[in-house]
Each structure stands twice: as C-alpha cells, then as structure tokens.
Amino acid sequence: MSALHSEEKSRMDNERSTSALLALGQICLNHGDGERAFSLFEAAARSGSADALNMLGRAYERGWGVRRNPVVAATYFQAAAEKGNGWALFNLADLCFSGEVGEKNPVMAYWLYVEAARKGVAKALNMLGLLHEDGLSGQLAPEEAATFFHAAAMAGDCWGFVNTGRLHLTRNEIKEAVFAFRKALSLGFCDVFLAVKGLLESLPLHPELRPVLLESERLLHASSCQAQPVSGKRKSEADHTVSSDIKL
C-alpha cells in the first residue's frame, strides 16, 4: 500500500469516526442526555472537524452538559467559521445580534448572515429578511425583506414560510397566506406551530384560515414539546428560535 493511499484511508477513517461521534451526540441530546452529548462533541472536535467545532460551540452556547459560556462558544464558532462552516457563521451572527459577546452589533450580524447564506444556510436568509424589515440593515426595506423571506421559504426554511405568510396576511392575500402557513406547519416543529397559532389568534380570523388554526392546534396537541415556551431555542441545528425568527 502506497503512503498516499494509506494517508487517504486514515483521513477517511477519521472522518467516519468524527461523523459517528457527532451522530451519537445528537441522539444523546435528543434524549435529554446533555452531559453525554457534550462528551461526544468534545471528542469529535479533537479531530479539528469544522462541524464538530461548531457543535461544541453550540454546547457551550446552550449549556448542553456544560456550564453555559457564550464567550467560549464564540471561539469554537470562529474556529469552525475559519474552516468554512456555514452554521458557525450563522451562530456567530446570532451572538453578535443578541449582544451576548460584547456589544450588540446588528451590522456585523448582517454581514455574517450574508456569509452564512452564501454557504447555503437557509435560515440566514430569513434573518436577513427580518433585519431588512426592521431597518437594522441600514434602512427600512420591506420589499427586500419579502424577497429574503421568499428565498428562505424556497430553500426549505419553515420560518421563511411563516414570515411569508405573515406578510401575505398584512396584504389580505388569504389564499397565499394559507399556502405559506400550511407549508410552515408541514416543515416545522413545536415553536412553529405556536407561532402560526399565535399569529392567527391575534387577528380577526378569515374563514379560509380557520382550518390552518385548527391544524396548528392539532399539531401542538400531538407534539411532545407542546409545553415549551415560544422563546425556546432550536432542538438541533435544523431548528431556530421563534423570538428572533418572527415578529409576534
């Protein structure tokens, strides 16, 4: 076996091992074993994998099996971002936007979300929509916001569909709102169900929207996380906060 072939085999074995550690860590996390998940993420991160560094950062950010420490989280996100990890860029943007590490910096957050979106993180498109809508990108830009929400939705982001539906409601575009909310419910999780329910209950309900409200209530009733607060953080890298992802 040539040295080059041996080196390639070793690299592939290391990648498989890291992927297995991350998968096991996510399973432990999903079952409420944060301490075991942290141990597995920490072991995976020793490989230098960008995905593993990002997940270790998430553990410190969220307090999964370790004392919560956004500053330490940011160092791991930065290391993963330097290796080109889109989720790490997104998570750094979140910290900049929230002000948990240093002063709140929406401008820096904006550009980090842009870079995350370029790496294929659909939720970054949704966040860019919110920043444009609120004027935090420099000026109020509702049309640009709508474009970003639509792009996020087309990329499969449930919050993009929620915000697209919300904008359709403000324009009294009921059929379009119904479609967007139904897509959000089909793609979403507990916080999405709560968000759609909250939006529809806050407004005079059009008859065509009543089945959507009933569907959100049915999904909440069937969901094991129905008692969680609306501001709860994402369960995994695939889920994101209601508080920062939608206007209620």
Explain this structure:
The chain has 248 residues and is mainly α. The protein is 70% helix and 0% strand. It contains 13 helices and no strands. It is globular. It starts with a helix and ends with a helix.
In short:
The protein is an all-alpha fold and 248 residues long. The chain has helices at 3-30, 34-45, 50-62, 70-82, 86-98, 106-118, 122-134, 142-154, 158-170, 174-187, 190-201, 210-222, 242-245.
- In whole angstroms, the N-to-C terminal distance is 62 Å
Shape descriptor: globular
Mean pLDDT: 87
Low-confidence stretches: 226-244
SSE run = HHHHHHHHHHHHH
Outline the biggest β-sheet: none
How many helices? 13
Derived from helix and strand composition plus strand pairing, the structural class reads mainly alpha
Give the number of DSSP strands: 0
Strand coverage percent: under 5%
Helix amount: over 70%
What Rg, in angstroms, do the CA atoms define? 20 Å
